[in-house]
Amino acid sequence: MITQDLISFFLFSLLYLTVTIPLVLAYRVTKVINFTVANYITYGAYTAVLLDYYMRSSFGHNSLLLTVLSSFAVTGLIAVLSNLAVFKPLAEMRVKGDVLMIASMGLWIVLKYVLYIVSDIASSAWRTNLVSYSQIHYDDISLLTVRAGLVGVQQSLVVFPLLALASMLILYLVLNATRVGRAVLAVADNSVLASLSGIAVGRVVSLTWFLTAGLTSLAGVMWTTYSGAITPEVGDSLILQVFTIAFIGGLSSLTRTAAGALLISGVENFGTDLLSTYLGLPTSIKPMLTFTVLLATLIVSPPLGVAGGVPYRFTRGARR
Amino acid sequence: MGVKLIVEKVTKRFGGVVALNRVSINVPSSLVVGLIGPNGSGKTTLFNVVTGYYTPDEGRVLIEGSGRVVDITGWNPNRISRLGVARTFQIPRLIPSLTVLENMLLFYDYGSCASITCSLRRKWVDVEEAAVARAMSILREFGLESIAHKRPAELSAGHLKLVETLRGLMSDAKLFMLDEPFAGVESWMARKLTDTIRKINREKGSTFVVIEHRITELLEGVDYVYVLHNGSLLAEGKPDEAVSDERVIKAYLGK
Amino acid sequence: MIDVLGFLITLTTYIGIYLVLSLTLTLEVSSGITNFGKVAFYGLGAYTGALIGTYLPLAITGSRASPFDVNGIQLLYTISKSNPVLDLSVFLLSLAAGFAVSALFGLLLTYPIHRVGSALVGFTLLSTGEVLRLFYLNTEPLGESKGFMGIPNPFAWLPQARGAEALYLIIVWCFVGLTYFIVSRIMNSPLGRILKGMRDDELVALYAGWPTPLIKSKVLALTSGLTGVAGVLWAYYFTSINPNMFTPSLTFNIWAMVILGGIDSIVGGVLGTVLLASVDYAARFVIPFIGTTLVTPDYLRWIIVGLVMLVVLLKKPEGLAPRRGGVSKL
Ligand SMILES: Nc1ncnc2c1ncn2[C@@H]1O[C@H](COP(=O)(O)OP(=O)(O)OP(=O)(O)O)[C@@H](O)[C@H]1O
Ligand SMILES: [Mg+2]
User: Fold this and answer.
1) What's the pLDDT tens digit per position in C261-282?
2) How confident is the model at residue C329 (pLDDT cuts 50, 70, 90)?
3) What is the distance between the alpha carbons of residues C261 and B162, in angstroms, rounded to a whole number?
4) How far is CA B195 from CA B142, B221, C247, in A?
């Protein structure tokens, strides 16, 4: 039981990190509270699903590397397009952050049901069930595990750390070792100053959309090696955890976000288990635990000043 | 009548930055006082502490009016402003979707007429009439009726600062704290602002604390000046004394 | 033979319930509360109503039947047919309880969210709705995934079904009228101006002397209460509810209506609601006749809802019927 908990704690921590670190970075650059991250995860997973079906039926095997590249490209492209079509024009109209967020809601619905339609059509064209797809095995990973002498190890145990690490590495390298990456950081810190110092903010923002969405899609790919039934609901089912973690990080601090990922993963895996063993509570309280953490965060350490709200600690108690 | 503002050894830190370091000032009632200092010296932070935007890490803020001393340290901005403290912002903040008149009305104390029950029973009509009359007479007095129905986006920087100052009159403010009222304002408008401040000060006896970071443009007719530097009070005194103080000149030129 | 009158009665009832939701949302939006959790309060009202409407009659008549099995549902039906007084009083009690429970819940929820920005408010309320739905889904006394099925029609004792439907319609629209009255009175008053100021720049409203967190709490409590009543009305209208009815999509539907008509315009909100709710209802009516198609019509419907939001925000942000003039009517 405890090893099982440890394993899922480990896996989910990596999964959450892969989604939330790019999310926080994206917020700092684009200033959009973006609910379409749910779509990025789902589109990542479904690019993998469609590719897996195609590869298996045509060539008999499938590769993680190819999948990652395709998911990254598809999702990144969707993000760039949604920026061009929706967020950039809205930002040029100088709307408030609320409107950007509401627009991201609208986009979320559209993208979500477009995917439903695509998977329905693909299902009927290929006469298979893509709306609930089974776990994917990647042959290059099998090869790798056999080489390393890890026969019989679940792919997820290899793929999660591999992709999470790759994601962090890419982010770190791009941001710290390239000029454009430093421009991204400059815009994240202060976009006005950045544009004054000659940085093409528009291009940097586009690149950020591509990069962060692409990296988020890796979480979708990770999911395909873990879940027994991949559905178009993957992304939506993670949104509570993801934003709770981002809010713990105050939508700004990467270290606090990472700590939040571990906290939520721990609460979900150990907390639920403890409560069900010792208090006999059903495991369905899992989302409620996360929600409690969210409320506690807002009460104890509210991310003030981000995305509106009173930018100082509004104290009700301090009335002498 | 004006009120007296007493700031006692206030310290405010932001992480490692000490924005205010044991600053004490004592603004007597019905005086126009200047607060000067180079960029980043802590002037705005002092306003933020006095008006309740921040709670000071150490020290106290007191308001003394009609023989009563109130310790407002740690109060919320809404309570402090109901006490008669009005402030403006370095970058003017008016409500963009409301007209100038409506922006003024927002600062009127509707009391219980702003409650849900009063709104449902439409008991606010008389109060609203009084409020509108008051706002219009203020605007008229300062020659601004023509912009009463304009929105902030249509106004010049000077007008924005002027309206921001005048809305304090709606709530009968006794202490005005103006953050760089002359920055980015044309000279004729700056003169108008000065006249406005003088007029309010003379007629209502209100106290003024005015921030200005360029020492040369120090507002004429300021009664007293405080000089802040790196979060500490550097000097204080009559304008000409303060300006000719060696340390002040050094702070401005030498850094 | 299509029953035109029946269709119209159903349609107008449906629109009426949606109107309560969109009118309250208009007030919330104009106060800067980005309520992405309408469905939380709506569902809470519906479940409160259903709980009272099923358990209470069974308890009063001393039956030990469960409201979830055939016997219980049958019994509930018989009681509502034969006992007008009990039937109506259970309904009225439900309305009151729906208001109280949802309003209290809204009031409690404002504590964690009154200091943070609208994005965090929106997300927290959205999650509240989802967490509540999962709670209904996993709680046995609430019928789990099947939900409640025997909620008694408050006019079941009338000899004519048509008369019951018409009476219910009148009740719904009286409540729409009340909601409209409340929302428009508040928005067109000095308080409405304060709310608008709070939405645009909370700090300025605070510096104007208004205790904005307190005002937000009061507004959210009131609108949540009204939304809860809408939930009760829905439960007693449909006579069965289940967790699936209370997904976030419902919230987005209402947002689309309000955006289409014009955010912070009452008339716009009404117009948007009538338009979208009619299309929505007509679609529900027509879709079953289409049979199975390659593309599920329901998905298309949602894509259209999302596109309506986006296109209006981009091309006509003030909506179809923008608000004219200021707050002051003097
Ligand atoms: N919210 C904050 N977080 C961190 N540091 C802050 C904050 N507010 C102010 N500071 C720092 O405190 C110091 C004083 O700032 P303040 O804005 O009070 O200066 P000022 O005298 O008003 O300058 P200016 O003339 O440019 O308006 C500066 O070093 C500033 O960077
Ligand atoms: Mg300043």
Assistant:
1) 988 889 999 999 999 999 888 8
2) very low
3) 36
4) 10, 10, 61
Predicted complex: ipTM over 0.85: yes
CB contact under 8 A, A110 and C307: yes
C-beta of residue A20 within 8 angstroms of C-beta of residue A246: yes
Q: Beta strands B85-87 and B58-65: pairing type?
A: unpaired
CB A144 within 8 A of CB A158: yes
Q: B13: which strand partners?
A: B18
Q: What is the pLDDT of residues B163-204, one digit of tens each?
A: 999 998 898 899 999 998 888 888 888 888 888 888 888 888
Structure tokens at A97: 């952050």
In a domain, A103, yes or no: yes
pLDDT at residue A262 tops 90: yes
Ligand that comes closest to the CA of residue B35: 1
At C133-189, the pLDDT tens digits run 999 999 889 988 899 998 999 998 988 888 899 999 999 999 999 999 999 999 999
- Give partners of B (≥3 CB pairs < 8 A): A, C
Residues from B in contact with C at Cβ < 8 Å: 51, 53, 76-78, 81-82, 86-87, 93-99, 101-102, 105-110, 113-116, 118-120, 122, 124-125, 127-129, 131-132, 167, 171
Q: Domain residues of chain C, as ranges?
A: 4-247
Distance CA A114, CA B33 (A): 64
Pocket of ligand 1 contains residue B90 by CB under 6 Å: yes
Torsion of CA C41, C42, C44, C48, to 10 degrees: 140
Give the tokens for residue B230: 């790196």
Name the domain count of chain A: 1
Specify the pLDDT at position A316: 41
The terminus-to-terminus CA distance of chain A in angstroms comes to: 52
Residue A195 structural domain: 10-234
CA dist., res. A218 & res. A168, Å (int): 11
